[in-house]
């Protein structure tokens, strides 16, 4: 029996690359358990506008000034990495019927109503696997409800860089050896720690200094994370007799970078650190 795979994601622009890959892979297959967004259901109209933009500009890597303005209006948190990904990979293609297929879980995934939704899913057969790309930690009840069935995509190589803005934080430290180790992506089981669950798959970018900017490098890491996450979901859905084992790896230190620590000054330090390391690598 095929396993059901549910995707829970942020609604950011870069997450639409994951949604595009996910929907291309699963479509209407029996293993497709739905795509659910961590956002307010009242914003569904905004998502219809966003998807209309994707339909109109799918594949474009160069937008006009008015198109960029429109995109920034639709994605209020559009950042340097989003813009870099658009120029590298083009506007992601999304199906026109996606607004009717999206589920909205609200902003708090640990709320009582979300727990009821998850409990209802877990009472069904086959029991679903939850594939997540989220900027929030899940409460312990999630782990108790779906032990070994919550799988995360992380845009850095674990255990070398845990938490938020992980590779950028390492860039700010100008540690070339560690930066080379951490730039890439990991798919791992979720536990009660911050990116401490058993590792399923990890890949490192071949040359992290081959990119023009730090944001292109991070964009390539996101893309790798999304590709790996969809690949693991494909394996879980098709291989009824086996499951990813997951391997626990000891972290080189106990730090997990926090979003609030990546302020404006740290961001500037990350950009400068990447430029410095890139120049040093070129001079070798």
Layout of secondary structure:
Blueprint: E1 5-9, H1 15-26, E2 32-37, H2 44-57, H3 65-74, H4 80-89, H5 98-101, E3 102-104, H6 112-122, E4 129-133, H7 140-145, E5 150-154, H8 166-173, H9 176-182, E6 184-189, E7 199-204, H10 214-238, H11 264-283
Parallel strand pairs: 1-2, 1-4, 2-3, 4-5
Antiparallel strand pairs: 5-6, 6-7
Helix pairs in contact: 1-10, 4-10, 8-9, 8-11
> Uncertain spans, ≥5 residues at pLDDT below 50?
none
Tell how many strands the DSSP assignment holds. 7
Work out the strand percent.
5-15%
Might you state the CATH topology name? Rossmann fold
CATH class: Alpha Beta
Any guess at the CATH architecture? 3-Layer(aba) Sandwich
Q: Which sheet architecture does the biggest sheet show?
A: 7 strands, mixed
Characterize this entry briefly:
By secondary structure, the protein is α/β, with parallel strands linked by helices.
Description:
The chain has 284 residues and is an alpha/beta fold. The chain is 45% helix and 13% strand. Strands 3-2-1-4-5-6-7 form a seven-stranded mixed sheet, sandwiched between helices. Helix 7 (140-145) links the parallel strand 4 and strand 5 (150-154). Helix 8 (166-173) runs antiparallel to helix 9 (176-182). The radius of gyration is 19 Å and the shape is globular.
Characteristics of this structure?
284 residues; 11 helices; single chain; alpha/beta; 13% strand
């Amino acid at each position: 029996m095929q396993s059901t795979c549910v995707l829970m994601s942020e609604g950011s622009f870069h997450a639409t690359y994951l949604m595009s890959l996910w929907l291309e892979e699963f479509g209407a297959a029996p293993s497709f358990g739905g795509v659910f967004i961590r956002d307010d259901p009242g914003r569904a109209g905004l998502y219809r506008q966003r998807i209309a933009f994707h339909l109109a500009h799918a594949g474009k890597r160069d937008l006009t000034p008015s198109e960029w303005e429109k995109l920034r209006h639709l994605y209020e948190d559009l950042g340097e990495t989003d813009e870099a990904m658009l120029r590298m990979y083009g506007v992601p293609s999304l199906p026109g019927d996606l607004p009717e297929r999206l589920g909205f879980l609200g902003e708090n995934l640990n709320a009582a109503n979300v727990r009821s939704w998850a409990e209802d899913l877990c009472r069904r057969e086959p029991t679903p696997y939850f594939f997540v790309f989220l900027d929030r930690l899940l409460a312990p009840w999630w782990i108790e409800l779906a032990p070994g069935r919550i799988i995360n995509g992380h845009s850095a190589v674990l255990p070398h860089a845990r938490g938020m803005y992980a590779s950028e934080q390492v860039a700010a430290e100008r540690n070339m050896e560690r930066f080379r180790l951490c730039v890439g992506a990991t798919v791992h089981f979720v536990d009660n720690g911050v990116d401490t669950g058993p590792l399923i798959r990890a890949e490192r970018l071949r040359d992290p200094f081959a990119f023009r900017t730090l944001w292109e490098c991070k964009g390539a890491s996101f893309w790798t994370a999304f590709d790996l996450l969809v690949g693991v979901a494909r394996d879980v859905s098709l291989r009824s007799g086996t499951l990813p084992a997951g391997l626990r790896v000891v972290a080189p230190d106990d730090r997990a970078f926090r979003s609030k620590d990546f302020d404006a000054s740290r961001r500037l330090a990350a950009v400068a650190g990447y430029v410095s390391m890139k120049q040093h690598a070129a001079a070798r």
